[in-house]
Amino acid sequence: MRKTLVIPLCLAVLCTACSTAWVSTLDSILAAAAPALINILQIAAVANGQPLNSGLEAKIDGDANAVKTLAGDFAQASAASAPGACQQLQAAVSTYQADQQLVLQAAQVSDSNTQTKITLLTNLVAGTVDAITAVIPSCENAAAFAPTEARGMKITAPYSAATFAAHYNSILVAKTGNPAIDAMTPKMRLRQHSKLVRMLTFGKLQ
Question: Where do the structural domains in the chain lie, given as residue ranges?
Fold first, then answer.
């Protein structure tokens, strides 16, 4: 009897792991995308000689954390509660999506080179919403999510968090001719590898 239970039990464990694996993918995307969005605010603040918009910074952090929490809730939801959990997750992602528009509106500078950098970075970060919705089961085609291109923003969807970070960093450190910006941006690079990989390579891989 015990042997006959082994296979079904193993299959159940494997299916559970597969069904929640997308949560880790979503978390890794947000772990790079939310700081990337805040970096754009910081660049604009320095370029304009103004303090960082701390209110919007806190909102981005809070909304990103809400998406992570609700993704976990949806992954663990029962069949009966899944539709409601899915709607809550949709609403949270839409709120995070709206934050990107707020950053785009706030990050306006007079220096054309810095503005070009901001535009390129913002377009890249915009693609993370599409990457997030693509991994959410049963929600990827939900009408609540407006395609990024429909909002008039060109997207560059990342294939992975590491690929996104690499592309983002290459744009981030490109020289603008503004000494303050060019001195600051190399310190704002996103991590391309997990903490474990960085430890195993003694920091050689960042």
Answer: 20-200
